Amino acid sequence: MDKNTINIDLAPLDALAAMAECLKVMAHPIRLRIVDILMQGEFTVGEIAELCGIKQHQACEHLRHMQACGLLASERRGQRVYYKIVSPHLPTLIKCVREHYQLKQLSNIDAL
Q1: pTM for the predicted model, two decimal places
Q2: Which are the contacts of 26, defined by CB distance < 8 A and separation ≥ 6?
Q3: Is there a contact between 85 and 91 (Cβ–Cβ < 8 Å)?
Q4: Residue 101: its pLDDT value, please?
Q5: 24: closest CA among 68, 58, 74, 55?
Q6: pLDDT tens, 1-39?
Q7: HSE-up of 31 (CA within 13 Å, CB side)?
Q8: Using CA of residue 90, residue 92, residue 93, residue 99, what is the dihedral sign?
């Protein structure tokens, strides 16, 4: 082996593609709001739509995309379907992004 060769562990490209797709799904303000809501408990589509200020069919579409990535799960209870976060890492990811954004905002204020 050439002594100038860099030898590090890298994630396979297919795994990175799946991660990128999931991050793309989350890159929407309404979906971030939905996560913020679901970090506080389980809610129905109607409740989520009302809290987000959108129509139920729009909330369903957002929830469908997030469920397809394995971030959320739904459970029928009688006539209602409740949604919850199933990815244990999603709240941590959102908290990290929120902290980064808040720190960035503080840095911008200090620079003025």
Answers
A1: 0.81
A2: 32, 35, 66, 69, 71
A3: yes
A4: 85
A5: 68
A6: 556 788 899 999 999 999 999 999 999 999 999 999 999
A7: 19
A8: positive
